[in-house]
């Protein structure tokens, strides 16, 4: 039930992750962080099997740090994604594969380009302009298909992310305690807040002021 | 003294020397000269191919120039069979890096990794060091063109111009005199030929006696290595001879 | 979800023409019924030899990378190009090496022999059994549909332009009848000294 959303804007990538940890019908935590910083320009959002996720995220973080230390240069977001994919693909053929789905958001400082990679637990990796994992994907890919455009400003991107979250708030069966937002751009990785949404577009079950007045 | 410390594995002698490594270096100092020059827009490697007998079949492929990856090529001085094993390893390292990280291995990382294996052979029991020095010419998008040299101890260093093998002291002196920072690749090729012509025993250079390799950007702007064909070497040699004639007059 | 070959979807086809070969695939990558990407290319080029890999996307990626490695090392070692036949045997032995825990892929090889220019195509099952053909080969979740349409559209000795038309129509008709394939296509026409790559626009449903 964890929510992972990623979307590219003209100069950055926005990663949106839910704050709740839930088991069955219970919410166990309301301020969980599902994003790990891998290096100056790469962040990874993760969800999946509870024990696996933290272990895998830590493993990738450590290996990316080790590469930077050994070779004196940081890995590019593209090579981080490729490395992570290869680790998941390798794990898939072991006795107990990692069950982790990922979104890797990065910014290529040399080419000044953002990138977003969608990676599933099987080790399939695709570079996408916008992406989501889990149940969230069912609810919001249509929204993103409709409203995402090439070359969005950061402001427009955050607004679109807020639209998605608002849609999820009405549709998801369990409160996911809101979302954390991380932005990866030319100045590195920053957290941010979503702008408030007055009326979420396409939300049919919210009656408008006019309908209420006439009733 | 040395008899007690050099016959078996690589252990320190009381003077703090590793005889096996020194013997390996000695083996290389008899090998054909190899040199490398870093230019503004590329790198040239040149090597002397020792023709030991007229009867020896002239191989079509290069003996001393080996491509290691898309952007790295190396010149060999020393025992060819040792070199061939190391080249095989280096190619595997380069391809494994590409497979894992979806990016070509940066030149310095490849050199570092290969030198780590070479170092291992100077320390672990029952092994002898590789009798090979390499000169590497490489390019990567972060550091651009790079020239490195390594030796059997596993030490490596970056250079603007360097040489190994027989007569390398003479070659090094010449390179020191003639090297200029703003050298273009074409001039670097000519300088390489000039140095080789002075350090080699034979009076005239021919394409059967030398090998050339360059790393530079092609017509499409993409950086590529090029192990030169004999015909291309002849063209460069012709230019070299003309320049020499002109200087005599 | 029970059949790994049908999680991500995708289909490919190769055909022989007159002194040319064609290879084509769709561009979809999905998770069951949900489309994820419309630019997931399944055809990989190895210095003139073309390999299509359909099936489980992770294995498609793992194998395409593995073949890039093996192909590069081959060409560096042998100092010559790898022929399509050689590539086919490399694919076969690589797949069979995982006989008891296979890669869930359906590969195709297409190319022209570098010296004779003779067309070569073949397909494989997931454990590397080669199937040769001198007309067409098909793989993927739309392979049944592809067999049908190729049987009726294919004719021997087509010129490159006609071969492009035939393979494109075959691919598009087939993937329209398969929910797991489509979302655009890509076609390579391989001639002696020319390769043409074209993208196809198809239905987006």
Automatic annotation (TrEMBL), chain A:
GO terms for cellular component: cytoplasm; nucleus; proteasome core complex. Gene3D superfamilies: Glutamine Phosphoribosylpyrophosphate, subunit 1, domain 1. Its main location: nucleus. Keywords: Cytoplasm, Proteasome. One of its GO terms (biological process) is proteasome-mediated ubiquitin-dependent protein catabolic process. The keyword Cytoplasm applies. InterPro entries: Ntn_hydrolases_N, Proteasome_sua/b, Proteasome_suB-type. It holds the Pfam family Proteasome. It is found in: Nucleus. PANTHER family: METALLOPROTEASE TLDD, PROTEASOME SUBUNIT BETA TYPE-1. This is Putative proteasome subunit beta type-4.
TrEMBL record, chain B:
One of its GO terms (cellular component) is nucleus. SUPFAM superfamilies: N-terminal nucleophile aminohydrolases (Ntn hydrolases) (SSF56235). GO terms for biological process: proteasomal ubiquitin-independent protein catabolic process; proteasome-mediated ubiquitin-dependent protein catabolic process. It is found in: Cytoplasm; Nucleus. The keyword Ubl conjugation does not apply. SMART domains: Proteasome_A_N (SM00948). It comes from the Eukaryota. Pfam families: Proteasome, Proteasome_A_N. Residues 5-27 form the Proteasome alpha-type subunits domain. Keywords: Cytoplasm, Nucleus, Proteasome. InterPro entries: Ntn_hydrolases_N (IPR029055), Proteasome_alpha (IPR050115), Proteasome_alpha-type (IPR023332), Proteasome_asu_N (IPR000426), Proteasome_bsu_CS (IPR016050), Proteasome_sua/b (IPR001353). Belongs to the peptidase T1A family. The 26S proteasome consists of a 20S proteasome core and two 19S regulatory subunits. The proteasome degrades poly-ubiquitinated proteins in the cytoplasm and in the nucleus. It is essential for the regulated turnover of proteins and for the removal of misfolded proteins. The proteasome is a multicatalytic proteinase complex that is characterized by its ability to cleave peptides with Arg, Phe, Tyr, Leu, and Glu adjacent to the leaving group at neutral or slightly basic pH. It has an ATP-dependent proteolytic activity. The proteasome is a multicatalytic proteinase complex which is characterized by its ability to cleave peptides with Arg, Phe, Tyr, Leu, and Glu adjacent to the leaving group at neutral or slightly basic pH. The proteasome has an ATP-dependent proteolytic activity. This is Proteasome subunit alpha type. It comes from Wickerhamiella sorbophila. The lineage of its organism: Eukaryota, Fungi, Dikarya, Ascomycota, Saccharomycotina.
UniProtKB/TrEMBL annotation, chain C:
InterPro entries: Ntn_hydrolases_N, Proteasome_beta_3, Proteasome_bsu_CS, Proteasome_sua/b, Proteasome_suB-type. Pfam families: Proteasome. Keywords: Cytoplasm, Nucleus, Proteasome. One of its GO terms (biological process) is proteasome-mediated ubiquitin-dependent protein catabolic process. Its main location: cytoplasm. One of its GO terms (cellular component) is nucleus. It is found in: Cytoplasm; Nucleus. Component of the proteasome, a multicatalytic proteinase complex which is characterized by its ability to cleave peptides with Arg, Phe, Tyr, Leu, and Glu adjacent to the leaving group at neutral or slightly basic pH. The proteasome has an ATP-dependent proteolytic activity. The 26S proteasome consists of a 20S proteasome core and two 19S regulatory subunits. The 20S proteasome core is composed of 28 subunits that are arranged in four stacked rings, resulting in a barrel-shaped structure. The two end rings are each formed by seven alpha subunits, and the two central rings are each formed by seven beta subunits. The catalytic chamber with the active sites is on the inside of the barrel. Component of the proteasome complex. Belongs to the peptidase T1B family. This is Proteasome subunit beta. It comes from Wickerhamiella sorbophila.
């Amino acid at each position: 039930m964890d929510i992972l959303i990623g979307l590219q804007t003209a100069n950055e990538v926005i990663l949106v992750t839910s704050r709740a940890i839930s088991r069955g019908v219970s919410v166990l935590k309301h301020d969980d962080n599902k994003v790990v910083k891998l290096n100056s320009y790469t962040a990874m959002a993760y969800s999946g099997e509870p024990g696996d996720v933290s272990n895998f995220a830590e493993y990738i973080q450590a290996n990316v740090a080790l590469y930077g230390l050994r070779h004196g240069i940081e890995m590019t977001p593209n090579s981080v994604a490729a490395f992570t994919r290869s680790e998941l693909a390798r794990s898939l053929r072991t006795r107990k594969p990692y069950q982790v789905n990922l979104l890797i958001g990065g910014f290529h400082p040399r080419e000044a380009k953002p990138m977003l990679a969608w990676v599933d637990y099987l080790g399939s990796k695709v570079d996408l302009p916008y992406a989501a994992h889990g149940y969230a994907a069912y609810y919001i890919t249509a929204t993103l298909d409709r409203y995402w455009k090439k070359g969005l400003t950061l402001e427009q991107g955050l607004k679109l992310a807020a639209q998605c979250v608002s849609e999820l708030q009405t549709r998801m069966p369990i409160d996911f305690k809101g979302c954390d937002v991380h932005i990866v751009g030319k100045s590195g990785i920053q957290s941010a807040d979503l702008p408030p949404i007055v009326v979420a577009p396409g939300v049919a079950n919210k009656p408008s002021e006019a309908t209420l007045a006439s009733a | 003294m040395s008899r007690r410390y050099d016959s078996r594995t690589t252990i320190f002698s009381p003077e703090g020397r590793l005889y096996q490594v020194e013997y390996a270096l000695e083996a290389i100092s008899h090998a054909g000269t190899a040199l490398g020059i870093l230019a503004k827009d590329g790198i040239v490697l040149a090597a002397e191919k020792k023709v030991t007998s007229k009867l020896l079949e002239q191989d079509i492929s290069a003996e001393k120039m080996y491509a290691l990856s898309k952007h790295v090529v190396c010149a060999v001085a020393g025992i060819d069979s040792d070199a061939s094993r190391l080249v095989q390893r280096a190619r595997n390292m380069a391809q494994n890096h590409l497979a894992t990280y979806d990016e070509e291995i940066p030149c310095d990382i490849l050199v570092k990794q290969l030198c780590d294996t070479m170092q291992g052979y100077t320390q672990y029991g029952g092994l002898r060091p590789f009798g090979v020095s390499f000169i590497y010419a490489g390019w990567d998008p972060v550091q651009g063109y790079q020239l490195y040299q390594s030796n059997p101890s596993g030490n490596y260093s970056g250079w603007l111009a360097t040489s190994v093998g027989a007569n390398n002291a003479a070659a090094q002196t010449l390179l020191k005199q003639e090297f200029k920072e703003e050298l273009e690749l074409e001039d670097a090729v000519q300088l390489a030929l000039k140095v080789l012509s002075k350090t080699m025993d034979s009076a005239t250079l021919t394409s059967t006696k030398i090998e050339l390799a360059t790393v530079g950007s092609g017509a499409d702007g993409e950086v590529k290595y090029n192990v030169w064909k004999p015909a291309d070497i002849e063209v460069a040699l012709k230019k070299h001879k003309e320049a020499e004639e002109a200087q005599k007059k | 979800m029970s059949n790994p070959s049908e999680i991500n979807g995708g289909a490919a086809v190769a055909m022989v023409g007159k002194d040319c070969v064609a290879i084509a695939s769709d561009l979809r990558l999905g998770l069951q019924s949900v489309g994820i990407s419309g630019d997931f290319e399944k055809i990989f080029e190895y210095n003139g030899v073309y390999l299509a890999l359909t099936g489980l996307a992770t294995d498609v990626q793992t194998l395409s990378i593995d073949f890039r490695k093996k192909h590069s090392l081959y060409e560096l070692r042998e100092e010559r190009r790898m022929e399509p036949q050689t590539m086919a045997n490399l694919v076969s032995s690589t797949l069979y090496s995982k006989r008891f825990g296979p890669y869930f892929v359906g590969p195709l090889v297409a190319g022209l022999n570098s010296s004779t220019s003779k067309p070569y195509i073949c397909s494989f099952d997931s454990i590397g059994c080669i199937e040769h053909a001198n007309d067409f080969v098909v793989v993927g979740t739309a392979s049944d549909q592809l067999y049908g349409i190729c049987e009726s559209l294919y004719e021997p000795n087509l010129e490159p332009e006609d071969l492009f038309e035939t393979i494109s129509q075959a691919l598009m008709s087939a993937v329209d009848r398969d929910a797991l394939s489509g979302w655009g296509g890509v076609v390579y026409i391989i001639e002696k000294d020319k390769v043409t790559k074209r993208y196809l626009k198809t239905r987006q449903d």
